[in-house]
Amino acid sequence: SSKEIMDTYQLAKHAVHVDRYLPDITKEFLVIGRSIIQLVLDADRGIWTDMIIHDADYVRIEPSFRTGFMPKLDLMPSPELQKWVKSSDPRDIEARKGLPKELLEQFSKGTPVPMDPMVTAYLARRSYFNDIAGTSFYVRNIPLWGMEKSLINATLTGHRRRSGPITQIAVGSENWEPSP
């Protein structure tokens, strides 16, 4: 029923604590131009229990040439991630609990991990139709800001030139009148 479906989503939302991640997701989306989020599924309970925001620099993005399909994403485990997976520090061991063992094994080997579209959200700030990588807020706005600043400076410079002192020269005298 609709209520059961809604309850499942509400339970997952509370388990994941989405609100806690929203500032980081928003920063990635605006500054880098994309945010890549992977949900962690607890198969026994049938809900998502956590999410991982991946470093976009370590995700290979290949286009899917069909409209409506997410691009193919492969996670390239960073050296830091590989080190974290192999760490024997009790804090790291605790942090790894609940993550799928298969995923941790792939991370430790350093092999590319195909990201499942069913549990991956790829948010790209697209500036045109086939922009699969996304465009940073800064890349779009800094040139406009620079042009605006140049126009303001040009306007002020012109104003300063026009509002400077005016020099008047008197030509001729009482006895002499200049001729053209």
Question: What would you say this structure looks like, in words?
Answer:
The N and C termini lie far apart (99 Å). The chain contains six helices and six strands; from the N terminus they run ααββββαααββα. 12% of the residues are buried. The strands form two sheets. It has a three-stranded antiparallel sheet with strand order 2-1-6. The mean pLDDT is 85. A hairpin with a 4-residue loop joins strand 1 and strand 2.
End-to-end distance, in Å?
99 Å
Mind telling me the C-alpha Rg? Answer: 30 Å
Strand content: 15-25%
Order of helices and strands: HHEEEEHHHEEH
Principal-axes shape call: elongated
Q: Spans of 5+ residues with little confidence (pLDDT < 50)?
A: none
- Total number of β-strand segments? 6
Average pLDDT for all residues? 85
Instruction: Tell me the major beta sheet.
Output: 3 strands, antiparallel
Number of DSSP helical runs: 6
| Strand arrangement across the biggest beta sheet | 2-1-6
Structural class: alpha+beta
The helicity comes to 40-55%
Write the topology of this structure.
Layout: H1 2-16, H2 18-32, E1 34-42, E2 47-54, E3 59-62, E4 72-75, H3 79-86, H4 90-96, H5 101-109, E5 113-114, E6 120-124, H6 137-162
Antiparallel strand pairs: 1-2, 1-6, 3-4, 4-5
Write a compact overview of the structure shown.
The protein is 44% helix and 18% strand. It has 180 residues and is α+β, with helices and mostly antiparallel strands.
Feature tags:
180 residues; alpha+beta; 6 helices; 6 strands
